[in-house]
Design goal:
By secondary structure, this protein is an alpha/beta fold. It has one domain: Ribokinase (UDP-N-acetylmuramoyl-L-alanine:D-glutamate ligase, 3-Layer(aba) Sandwich). Helix content is 35%, strand content 27%. The strands form 2 sheets. The chain has a 9-stranded mixed sheet with strand order 5-4-1-8-9-10-11-12-13, with helices on both faces. Strand 8, helix 5 and strand 9 form a beta-alpha-beta unit. The radius of gyration is 19 Å and the shape is globular.
Length: 320
């Protein structure tokens, strides 16, 4: 099936996202001098804005790519101003929620300074708690109900405490629906990621998870160890798929000269999940994931491309 025809099957998909929910704050301004107090730039602030991050950004990407779909986000937030903004934004984008609010909302503030040309990322400040968090029994019951109805389930693991053994025990009957964006910093990743449909590490994560130095050997080992299909993200080089019990497949992409990587992995896993939810091949899913990620890296900060943007990219860049 041609890639553009696969996109016609994206609307109306039912995808559940569970993971570390974040809010990204961008503070922008001009850098015109170095501080006399220390060798650091002085940022004259012009404006600031917020974008969804982490699992929330995955849900936003799914909502944009499946505009008539049933997208649900589950994770931990707080009862703080950041949570109010986050829930309002999710509601405006038709994203359902199943949230535990007995925590604090993870906030990542990036300071962007411009002296000439492209804004430069000069500092990031994180407000977060990394300890394991346990969903209430009521939410776990809701997650089981949502998982049963979902076409696929994305676990967005940033090792901030949401993706735990307790959660995976709740989802044990639905492992064949799990697509995992992994973090080897999660102390229980070897047990949590086992028997999932697919895992999408980047090159560094794949090497760390496997304990090997060669990416080809690492991908094969991970596929066998986790009994899963492995999509290794290689930045401007595209993807290599290590199918469960099959030969690796290299899926290249067109390189971008100027790119911002923030959120590209979230966009890619959303596109891959929707592609697999249409019962298409791993290779086609990887190709569509590449196209979607290329649209994101052209923008500053997280960017969730629309279905129309993705369709246009495929038409313009795919060879007949």
């Amino acid at each position: 099936m041609e890639l553009k025809n696969i996109l016609e099957l994206f609307p109306k998909k039912n995808i559940l996202v569970i993971g570390d929910i974040m809010l990204d704050k961008y503070t922008e301004g001009f850098v015109e001098r170095i501080s006399p107090e220390a060798p650091v730039p002085v940022l004259r602030v012009e404006n600031h804005y917020y974008k969804l991050g982490g699992a929330a950004n995955v849900a936003m990407n799914l909502s944009n790519l499946s505009p008539e779909g049933n997208i649900t986000l589950s994770g931990f937030t707080g009862k703080d101003p950041e949570s109010i903004f986050l829930k309002k934004t999710l509601e405006e984008n038709n994203i359902n929620t199943c949230l535990d609010e007995n925590s604090s909302t993870i906030l990542k503030e990036r300071f962007m300074g411009k002296s000439s040309g492209h804004p430069q990322h000069i500092l990031r400040v994180d407000r977060e708690e990394n300890k394991p968090k346990l969903f209430t029994q009521e939410i776990k019951k809701n997650l089981m109900h949502l998982s049963e109805k979902a076409d696929l389930i994305i676990l967005s693991d940033y090792a901030k405490g949401t993706i735990t053994l307790d959660l995976i025990n709740t989802l044990n009957n639905f492992k064949n629906k799990l697509i995992i964006d992994p973090k080897p910093k999660n102390p229980d990743f070897k047990s949590i990621y086992q028997d999932s449909l697919a895992i999408t590490p980047n090159k560094k994560e794949a090497l760390e998870m496997s304990g090997l130095n060669d990416i080809y050997d690492a991908g094969i080992k991970l596929s066998k160890d986790f009994n899963s299909n492995i999509f290794v993200k290689e930045g401007g080089e595209g993807l290599t798929i290590f199918p469960n019990n099959n030969h690796p497949i290299k899926v290249p992409t067109n390189k971008e000269t100027n790119f911002e990587e923030t959120g590209a992995g979230d966009t890619m896993i959303a596109a891959i999940a929707l592609s697999l939810a249409t019962n298409n091949s791993l290779e086609n899913a990887a190709k569509i994931g590449n196209h979607a990620a290329r649209l994101t890296v052209k923008k500053i900060g997280t960017h969730a491309p629309t279905l129309n943007e993705l369709h246009r990219s495929i038409i313009e860049n795919e060879t007949p």
